Hints:
This protein has helices spanning 59-74, 88-99, 114-123, 148-162, 177-193, 210-222, 236-246, 257-260, 273-285, 315-329, and strands spanning 29-32, 45-50, 77-82, 105-109, 128-132, 141-146, 167-172, 198-203, 228-231, 250-254, 265-271, 294-297, 305-309. The longest helix has 17 residues, at 177-193. The protein has 2 domains: 25-146 and 273-297, Response regulator (Rossmann fold, 3-Layer(aba) Sandwich), CATH 3.40.50; 148-272 and 302-329, Response regulator (Rossmann fold), CATH 3.40.50.2300. By secondary structure, the chain is of the alpha/beta class. Strand 7 (167-172), helix 5 (177-193) and strand 8 form a beta-alpha-beta unit. Strands 1-3-2-4-5-6-12 form a 7-stranded mixed beta sheet, with helices on both faces. Strands 8-7-9-10-11-13 form a 6-stranded mixed beta sheet, with helices on both faces. Helices cover 36% and strands 20% of the residues. The termini are far apart. Mean pLDDT is 88; it is low at 1-42.
Amino acid sequence: MPQTAKLKxxxxxxxxPSRRALIGSGGASLLALAGxxxxxxxKISIAALFxxxxxxxxFMQAGYEGLLRARDTLGADIAFEQGVAPRAExxxxxxxxxxxxxxxxxxxxxxxxxxxxxxxxxxxxNILFAVTQGAALGANLSSYEVLxxxxxxxxxxxxGLTTKTGIAGHMSGIRVTPGLKGRAACAAGLKFANPGARLxxxxxxxxxxxxxxKKIAHAMIDAGADVIFTMLNAGRGxxxxxCRERNVPQIGNVGDWAARMPEVFIGxxxxxxxxxxxxxxxxxxxxxxxxxxxxxxxLERSDAVRLSLREGIDPALREKLxxxxxxxxxxxxxxxxxxAGAEFAAPA
Length: 348
Protein backbone atom coordinates (compact mmCIF):
# COMPACT_ATOMS: atom_id res chain seq x y z
CA MET A 1 0.00 0.00 0.00
CA PRO A 2 1.26 3.53 -0.64
CA GLN A 3 3.13 5.23 2.16
CA THR A 4 2.09 8.66 3.44
CA ALA A 5 2.63 11.08 0.60
CA LYS A 6 5.68 13.34 0.83
CA LEU A 7 4.92 17.01 1.15
CA LYS A 8 5.88 19.18 -1.78
CA UNK A 9 7.20 22.72 -1.62
CA UNK A 10 3.79 24.36 -1.98
CA UNK A 11 2.62 26.01 1.23
CA UNK A 12 -0.89 26.41 2.55
CA UNK A 13 -1.26 30.12 3.17
CA UNK A 14 -3.62 31.53 5.81
CA UNK A 15 -6.84 33.43 5.32
CA UNK A 16 -10.10 33.78 7.25
CA PRO A 17 -13.32 32.19 5.95
CA SER A 18 -15.07 34.31 3.36
CA ARG A 19 -18.27 34.13 1.36
CA ARG A 20 -16.50 35.34 -1.77
CA ALA A 21 -16.56 32.84 -4.62
CA LEU A 22 -13.65 32.14 -6.94
CA ILE A 23 -14.05 30.95 -10.52
CA GLY A 24 -13.84 27.16 -10.83
CA SER A 25 -15.01 24.12 -8.91
CA GLY A 26 -18.66 25.08 -9.15
CA GLY A 27 -18.02 28.68 -8.09
CA ALA A 28 -16.93 27.72 -4.59
CA SER A 29 -14.36 29.49 -2.44
CA LEU A 30 -10.89 28.01 -2.13
CA LEU A 31 -9.63 29.29 1.17
CA ALA A 32 -6.76 28.85 3.55
CA LEU A 33 -7.33 29.37 7.24
CA ALA A 34 -5.59 31.73 9.67
CA GLY A 35 -3.26 29.88 11.95
CA UNK A 36 -0.61 32.29 13.13
CA UNK A 37 2.85 32.73 11.68
CA UNK A 38 3.80 30.56 8.72
CA UNK A 39 5.99 27.58 9.54
CA UNK A 40 9.02 27.06 7.35
CA UNK A 41 8.71 23.29 7.53
CA UNK A 42 5.11 22.28 8.28
CA LYS A 43 4.77 18.93 9.96
CA ILE A 44 1.73 17.94 7.93
CA SER A 45 -0.61 19.59 5.44
CA ILE A 46 -4.30 18.80 5.09
CA ALA A 47 -6.91 20.06 2.63
CA ALA A 48 -10.63 19.56 3.19
CA LEU A 49 -13.73 19.88 1.02
CA PHE A 50 -17.09 20.99 2.44
CA UNK A 51 -20.12 20.71 0.16
CA UNK A 52 -21.92 23.48 1.99
CA UNK A 53 -21.24 26.42 4.28
CA UNK A 54 -18.84 25.95 7.19
CA UNK A 55 -21.18 28.23 9.15
CA UNK A 56 -24.32 26.12 8.61
CA UNK A 57 -24.72 25.28 12.30
CA UNK A 58 -24.75 21.62 11.39
CA PHE A 59 -22.82 18.93 9.53
CA MET A 60 -20.42 21.15 7.58
CA GLN A 61 -19.63 23.36 10.54
CA ALA A 62 -18.90 20.29 12.68
CA GLY A 63 -16.43 19.09 10.05
CA TYR A 64 -14.82 22.51 9.84
CA GLU A 65 -14.39 22.58 13.61
CA GLY A 66 -12.69 19.19 13.34
CA LEU A 67 -10.31 20.72 10.80
CA LEU A 68 -9.55 23.57 13.21
CA ARG A 69 -8.76 21.03 15.91
CA ALA A 70 -6.36 19.32 13.53
CA ARG A 71 -4.64 22.67 13.01
CA ASP A 72 -4.50 23.50 16.70
CA THR A 73 -3.64 20.10 18.18
CA LEU A 74 -1.52 18.61 15.40
CA GLY A 75 0.20 21.72 14.10
CA ALA A 76 -1.20 21.04 10.64
CA ASP A 77 -1.18 23.54 7.83
CA ILE A 78 -4.73 23.49 6.47
CA ALA A 79 -6.70 24.65 3.47
CA PHE A 80 -10.32 24.11 2.59
CA GLU A 81 -12.98 24.76 0.02
CA GLN A 82 -16.60 25.37 0.97
CA GLY A 83 -19.91 26.04 -0.71
CA VAL A 84 -19.52 23.41 -3.44
CA ALA A 85 -22.80 22.13 -4.84
CA PRO A 86 -23.33 18.44 -3.98
CA ARG A 87 -23.17 17.38 -7.64
CA ALA A 88 -20.69 14.86 -8.98
CA GLU A 89 -18.91 17.18 -11.43
CA UNK A 90 -18.60 20.01 -8.90
CA UNK A 91 -17.31 17.75 -6.14
CA UNK A 92 -14.82 16.07 -8.47
CA UNK A 93 -13.52 19.42 -9.70
CA UNK A 94 -13.16 20.78 -6.19
CA UNK A 95 -11.29 17.72 -4.94
CA UNK A 96 -9.03 17.84 -8.00
CA UNK A 97 -8.20 21.49 -7.28
CA UNK A 98 -7.37 20.73 -3.66
CA UNK A 99 -5.18 17.75 -4.59
CA UNK A 100 -3.31 19.88 -7.12
CA UNK A 101 -2.05 21.98 -4.19
CA UNK A 102 -0.07 18.90 -3.07
CA UNK A 103 -1.19 18.40 0.53
CA UNK A 104 -0.31 15.19 2.30
CA UNK A 105 -3.97 14.37 2.94
CA UNK A 106 -7.22 15.44 1.26
CA UNK A 107 -10.41 14.94 3.28
CA UNK A 108 -13.82 15.06 1.61
CA UNK A 109 -16.41 15.77 4.29
CA UNK A 110 -19.62 13.84 3.71
CA UNK A 111 -20.76 10.66 2.03
CA UNK A 112 -21.92 12.61 -1.04
CA UNK A 113 -18.20 12.65 -1.94
CA UNK A 114 -17.81 8.87 -2.26
CA UNK A 115 -17.64 8.65 -6.05
CA UNK A 116 -15.74 11.91 -6.53
CA UNK A 117 -13.10 10.78 -4.02
CA UNK A 118 -12.65 7.45 -5.79
CA UNK A 119 -12.13 9.24 -9.11
CA UNK A 120 -9.68 11.86 -7.87
CA UNK A 121 -7.73 9.47 -5.64
CA UNK A 122 -6.90 7.43 -8.73
CA UNK A 123 -5.60 10.57 -10.44
CA UNK A 124 -3.30 11.47 -7.51
CA UNK A 125 -1.82 8.15 -6.32
CA ASN A 126 0.88 9.84 -4.21
CA ILE A 127 -1.64 11.74 -2.06
CA LEU A 128 -3.77 10.16 0.63
CA PHE A 129 -7.54 10.71 0.62
CA ALA A 130 -10.27 10.22 3.22
CA VAL A 131 -14.05 10.53 3.09
CA THR A 132 -15.98 11.21 6.28
CA GLN A 133 -19.40 9.64 6.78
CA GLY A 134 -18.80 7.65 3.63
CA ALA A 135 -17.69 4.24 2.48
CA ALA A 136 -15.18 4.97 -0.29
CA LEU A 137 -12.08 2.77 -0.27
CA GLY A 138 -9.04 2.48 -2.50
CA ALA A 139 -5.27 2.05 -2.70
CA ASN A 140 -4.78 5.55 -1.22
CA LEU A 141 -8.31 6.13 0.10
CA SER A 142 -10.07 5.34 3.39
CA SER A 143 -13.32 6.36 5.06
CA TYR A 144 -14.04 7.49 8.60
CA GLU A 145 -17.55 7.32 10.01
CA VAL A 146 -19.23 8.57 13.16
CA LEU A 147 -22.23 6.31 13.75
CA UNK A 148 -24.97 8.90 13.82
CA UNK A 149 -27.56 6.15 13.54
CA UNK A 150 -26.86 5.30 17.19
CA UNK A 151 -27.85 8.75 18.45
CA UNK A 152 -30.68 8.88 15.88
CA UNK A 153 -32.14 5.72 17.45
CA UNK A 154 -32.10 7.50 20.80
CA UNK A 155 -33.73 10.56 19.21
CA UNK A 156 -36.53 8.33 17.93
CA UNK A 157 -36.92 6.84 21.38
CA UNK A 158 -37.10 10.32 22.91
CA UNK A 159 -39.82 11.22 20.40
CA GLY A 160 -41.71 8.04 21.22
CA LEU A 161 -41.56 8.70 24.95
CA THR A 162 -42.70 12.33 24.68
CA THR A 163 -45.30 12.39 21.91
CA LYS A 164 -48.89 12.86 23.06
CA THR A 165 -50.50 12.44 19.65
CA GLY A 166 -48.56 9.28 18.82
CA ILE A 167 -47.14 10.98 15.71
CA ALA A 168 -43.55 12.20 15.34
CA GLY A 169 -41.83 13.91 12.42
CA HIS A 170 -38.44 13.28 10.86
CA MET A 171 -36.95 15.76 8.39
CA SER A 172 -33.81 15.55 6.27
CA GLY A 173 -32.56 16.83 2.93
CA ILE A 174 -30.14 14.91 0.73
CA ARG A 175 -30.44 11.13 0.48
CA VAL A 176 -26.88 10.22 1.44
CA THR A 177 -26.24 6.87 3.12
CA PRO A 178 -25.63 8.22 6.66
CA GLY A 179 -28.87 10.20 6.49
CA LEU A 180 -30.84 7.19 5.30
CA LYS A 181 -29.32 5.07 8.05
CA GLY A 182 -30.21 7.78 10.56
CA ARG A 183 -33.83 7.79 9.39
CA ALA A 184 -34.03 3.99 9.73
CA ALA A 185 -32.59 4.18 13.23
CA CYS A 186 -34.94 6.98 14.25
CA ALA A 187 -37.94 4.95 13.06
CA ALA A 188 -36.70 1.92 14.99
CA GLY A 189 -36.10 3.92 18.16
CA LEU A 190 -39.59 5.40 17.95
CA LYS A 191 -41.17 1.95 17.68
CA PHE A 192 -38.91 0.48 20.36
CA ALA A 193 -40.05 3.10 22.87
CA ASN A 194 -43.64 3.44 21.67
CA PRO A 195 -44.85 0.56 19.45
CA GLY A 196 -48.06 2.36 18.55
CA ALA A 197 -46.38 5.59 17.39
CA ARG A 198 -46.21 6.65 13.74
CA LEU A 199 -43.39 8.45 11.94
CA UNK A 200 -43.84 11.11 9.27
CA UNK A 201 -40.55 11.20 7.36
CA UNK A 202 -39.42 13.47 4.54
CA UNK A 203 -36.25 14.02 2.50
CA UNK A 204 -36.76 17.39 0.84
CA UNK A 205 -33.70 17.26 -1.42
CA UNK A 206 -32.11 20.33 0.17
CA UNK A 207 -30.26 20.56 3.50
CA UNK A 208 -30.22 24.37 3.57
CA UNK A 209 -33.55 25.74 2.27
CA UNK A 210 -35.32 27.38 5.22
CA UNK A 211 -38.48 28.32 3.34
CA UNK A 212 -38.91 24.72 2.21
CA UNK A 213 -38.15 23.19 5.59
CA LYS A 214 -40.58 25.55 7.34
CA LYS A 215 -43.34 24.60 4.90
CA ILE A 216 -42.73 20.88 5.47
CA ALA A 217 -42.62 21.31 9.25
CA HIS A 218 -45.95 23.15 9.21
CA ALA A 219 -47.46 20.37 7.09
CA MET A 220 -46.21 17.69 9.48
CA ILE A 221 -47.61 19.56 12.47
CA ASP A 222 -50.94 19.93 10.66
CA ALA A 223 -50.86 16.14 10.13
CA GLY A 224 -50.54 15.56 13.87
CA ALA A 225 -46.80 15.53 14.60
CA ASP A 226 -46.14 17.02 18.02
CA VAL A 227 -42.36 16.48 18.03
CA ILE A 228 -39.96 16.75 15.07
CA PHE A 229 -36.46 15.32 14.68
CA THR A 230 -34.41 17.34 12.19
CA MET A 231 -31.36 16.08 10.30
CA LEU A 232 -30.75 19.30 8.38
CA ASN A 233 -27.95 21.83 8.06
CA ALA A 234 -28.72 25.52 7.54
CA GLY A 235 -32.33 24.56 6.74
CA ARG A 236 -32.90 23.73 10.39
CA GLY A 237 -33.77 27.40 10.92
CA UNK A 238 -37.05 27.04 9.04
CA UNK A 239 -38.10 24.17 11.30
CA UNK A 240 -37.14 26.18 14.37
CA UNK A 241 -39.42 28.99 13.20
CA UNK A 242 -42.30 26.57 12.60
CA CYS A 243 -41.84 24.90 15.97
CA ARG A 244 -41.80 28.26 17.74
CA GLU A 245 -44.97 29.36 15.97
CA ARG A 246 -46.83 26.14 16.75
CA ASN A 247 -45.27 25.40 20.16
CA VAL A 248 -43.94 22.01 19.04
CA PRO A 249 -40.70 20.66 20.53
CA GLN A 250 -37.83 19.73 18.26
CA ILE A 251 -34.98 17.24 18.52
CA GLY A 252 -31.76 18.35 16.84
CA ASN A 253 -28.75 16.50 15.51
CA VAL A 254 -24.98 16.85 15.01
CA GLY A 255 -24.46 19.55 17.69
CA ASP A 256 -25.95 20.15 21.12
CA TRP A 257 -29.09 22.06 20.19
CA ALA A 258 -30.69 21.29 23.57
CA ALA A 259 -27.99 23.40 25.21
CA ARG A 260 -28.03 26.14 22.56
CA MET A 261 -31.80 26.59 22.34
CA PRO A 262 -33.59 24.76 25.17
CA GLU A 263 -36.80 26.70 24.62
CA VAL A 264 -37.20 24.83 21.31
CA PHE A 265 -35.16 21.63 21.59
CA ILE A 266 -35.87 18.91 24.13
CA GLY A 267 -32.83 16.96 23.01
CA UNK A 268 -30.23 16.53 20.33
CA UNK A 269 -28.84 13.42 18.65
CA UNK A 270 -25.21 14.44 18.77
CA UNK A 271 -23.13 12.91 16.00
CA UNK A 272 -20.05 15.07 15.78
CA UNK A 273 -18.84 14.43 12.25
CA UNK A 274 -15.85 16.63 13.00
CA UNK A 275 -14.48 13.75 15.07
CA UNK A 276 -14.36 11.63 11.91
CA UNK A 277 -12.35 14.31 10.14
CA UNK A 278 -10.08 14.76 13.16
CA UNK A 279 -9.53 11.00 13.44
CA UNK A 280 -8.33 10.86 9.84
CA UNK A 281 -5.96 13.75 10.51
CA UNK A 282 -4.68 12.15 13.72
CA UNK A 283 -3.96 8.88 11.96
CA UNK A 284 -2.16 10.75 9.20
CA UNK A 285 -0.07 12.77 11.65
CA UNK A 286 0.91 9.62 13.56
CA UNK A 287 1.83 7.73 10.41
CA UNK A 288 -1.03 5.30 11.10
CA UNK A 289 -3.31 6.14 8.17
CA UNK A 290 -4.17 2.85 6.48
CA UNK A 291 -5.63 2.98 2.96
CA UNK A 292 -8.58 0.78 2.11
CA UNK A 293 -10.02 0.86 5.64
CA UNK A 294 -13.39 2.00 7.03
CA UNK A 295 -13.02 3.20 10.63
CA UNK A 296 -16.17 3.65 12.74
CA UNK A 297 -16.78 5.51 16.02
CA UNK A 298 -19.97 5.23 18.09
CA LEU A 299 -21.40 5.72 21.57
CA GLU A 300 -18.19 4.46 23.15
CA ARG A 301 -16.76 7.95 22.45
CA SER A 302 -19.10 10.46 24.06
CA ASP A 303 -17.58 13.48 22.33
CA ALA A 304 -18.54 11.84 19.03
CA VAL A 305 -21.95 10.22 19.62
CA ARG A 306 -24.54 10.71 22.37
CA LEU A 307 -28.03 12.02 23.06
CA SER A 308 -28.16 15.32 24.91
CA LEU A 309 -31.24 16.36 26.87
CA ARG A 310 -32.23 19.83 27.97
CA GLU A 311 -32.03 20.85 31.59
CA GLY A 312 -35.02 19.95 33.74
CA ILE A 313 -36.17 16.96 31.72
CA ASP A 314 -37.92 14.21 33.72
CA PRO A 315 -35.23 12.16 35.54
CA ALA A 316 -37.15 8.94 34.86
CA LEU A 317 -37.10 9.70 31.12
CA ARG A 318 -33.41 10.50 31.30
CA GLU A 319 -32.77 7.17 33.03
CA LYS A 320 -34.72 5.20 30.38
CA LEU A 321 -32.75 6.79 27.58
CA UNK A 322 -29.45 6.20 29.36
CA UNK A 323 -30.41 2.54 29.64
CA UNK A 324 -31.08 2.37 25.90
CA UNK A 325 -27.73 4.01 25.16
CA UNK A 326 -25.96 1.48 27.36
CA UNK A 327 -27.79 -1.33 25.59
CA UNK A 328 -26.67 -0.11 22.18
CA UNK A 329 -23.07 0.37 23.29
CA UNK A 330 -23.00 -3.15 24.74
CA UNK A 331 -24.55 -4.70 21.64
CA UNK A 332 -27.75 -5.77 23.41
CA UNK A 333 -29.88 -3.48 21.24
CA UNK A 334 -29.47 -3.66 17.49
CA UNK A 335 -29.79 -0.42 15.54
CA UNK A 336 -31.33 -1.07 12.10
CA UNK A 337 -29.90 0.89 9.18
CA UNK A 338 -32.54 0.06 6.59
CA UNK A 339 -36.14 1.22 6.43
CA ALA A 340 -38.98 0.80 3.96
CA GLY A 341 -42.27 2.64 4.11
CA ALA A 342 -44.31 5.50 2.76
CA GLU A 343 -42.74 8.93 3.00
CA PHE A 344 -44.45 12.19 3.90
CA ALA A 345 -44.97 14.19 0.71
CA ALA A 346 -43.64 17.72 0.71
CA PRO A 347 -46.47 20.27 0.27
CA ALA A 348 -46.74 21.94 -3.13
